[in-house]
Amino acid sequence: MEDLAVSLAETLRAAREAQELSTNALAGRSGVSRAMIAKIERGDAQPTAVLLGKLAAALGMTLSSLIARAEANTQRVRRFADQPVWTDPETGYRRRAVSPGSGGPLELVEVDLPAGAVVSYGAESYTFLHHQIWVLSGHLRFREGDVDHELDPGDCLQLGPPAPCSYINPTTENCRYLVVISKRLGG
Questions:
Q1: 84-93 as b/e: b if 16+ CB within 10 A
Q2: Mean pLDDT across the chain, nearest whole number?
Q3: Residue 158: pLDDT above 50?
């Protein structure tokens, strides 16, 4: 198992324990089975983006902040070569944590969504966040609740109130986009 995957497993367990949550309680909050949480924490399973998103949201953090904690970077400059890249084993979705350090109010995440891939998150993943998507190349269909937004290079979407969302690449070419996340006041 690669270093970031091992660190993610340890970070997830530490975040759960810091909130004094049992695996049963986290399973209840996240909708992820207790057995799967245990496998992820032991490093026996490589979690998908969807699973990590559900677990992070249930712990009151973003997927980006979970990854940032896992790599424990407190530098103010994050060089390209040092930006952690995580690939979803199910879809090939690749995310690069661009922002330096962890715990800041703003996160930048570069995503490469393979042709034909779909990655979906529940509304809980967007609670307490301002979220924008800026398409750099390719085409992205972003489904926000019941509304589809068709986004091309240069297009930027600001998300509305929390809703279940899907990142969809309906084309035969990869789509690259930047996600900008900031915490809402009070969240």
A1: bebbbeebeb
A2: 87
A3: yes
* CA separation for the pair 169, 13 (Å, rounded): 32
Contact 141, 169 (CB under 8 A): yes
Predicted pLDDT of residue 105: 76
The C-alpha atoms of residue 7 and residue 52 are separated, in whole angstroms, by 13
b/e map 54-64, b = 16+ CB within 10 Å: bbbbbbebbbb
For 160-175, give the DSSP string: -SS--EEEE--SSS-E
Q: Which amino acid is at 185?
A: L
Beta-carbon contacts of 2 under 8 Å, excluding residues fewer than 6 positions away, are: none
Is this structure's pTM higher than 0.70?
A: no
Instruction: Enter the tokens of residue 24.
Output: 């049963």
For residue 137, how far is the Cα from the chain centroid? 20
Q: Say if CB 64 and CB 97 are below 8 A apart.
A: yes
- Residue 89: name the closest of 48, 56, 117, 53 by CA: 48
Q: How far apart are CA 5 and CA 68, in angstroms?
A: 12
pLDDT of residue 151: 98
